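step: validate -> pass
step: tokenize input -> pass
step: predict -> running
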Amino acid sequence: MTSIADLYPTGTVTLREVGLRDGLQLVKRFPSTGAKTAWLMQEHAAGVRHFEVGSFLPASRMPQFADVRELIEETSRLGAFSSALALNERGAKDACDTRVDEIINVISATEEHSQANMRRSRAEAVELVRRSKALSQGAAHKPLVNAGIAMAFGCSIAGEVAPDEVLRLAEACLEAGADAIGVADTVGFAGPRQVAAVTEALVKLCGEVPVLVHLHDTRGMSIVNAAAAIDAGARALDGSLGGLGGCPFAPGATGNAVFEDLVFLCETMGIRTGIDLTALIEVRDILAREMPEEELHGALARSGPPPHVKWAA
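step: predict -> pass
step: emit ->
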């Protein structure tokens, strides 16, 4: 059984590489299982320890995640932590039959997005958290349940999202048994003051339950927003290698916060990540080779780490 203290230790920031799931949900072509395994292994060698490796969805609908079980096994073999998305009870049951460390459920901050994205109400989404927790408790390894609140800083369908509504949903997820609470700037609406205020309020509400922040770079704000989240007490940040990703509800938008740039941010803020930036940037070669149509982003990839600075191993 993986503990919260292991996954998200207090006093530091855990960086979660979500490229293998969120980064691949809208790509035109996706890497082979062999290339994904190389991606995992090379990032692990660079010091990355937390990977979101896929979704438990029918392969006929999302073939890019058909190998999620193999990637969970590979992550376990490496001694790293794995997370995977489960959008329904069947997915949660399938996840519990693997060695995944964390099951991610999604709850939309607005009813409009919940119906459009998952064809269910927010109340039903919270109930899935409860069912996932019950299933987890019955599993041999008892994976953690992460309740991720999408559109938490603004919705491309409904518009403005009141912070009190995000807190209400977070409280409902805590009552349902969530082990971690995440908030996502799914379509890149937020600025640092908004991120700081919501994160700080969530940290106060959640107590010992870790708060995770998932940022997109739609309007170029992900790094400054990440700094605000760290200062407000976030225990984990999501990013994807090369900034891969996107959202079907934000056409033309860029993807997730660039993982390499998040590493650099943390190091400049005095948070030791244990990640070798030079080795991490080299992993982008796999993405460029396997998905040549995809644009890769990132300031560190353009400029390189500062010379003669050795933060990591």
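step: describe -> The first helix runs from residue 4 to 7.
step: cleanup -> pass
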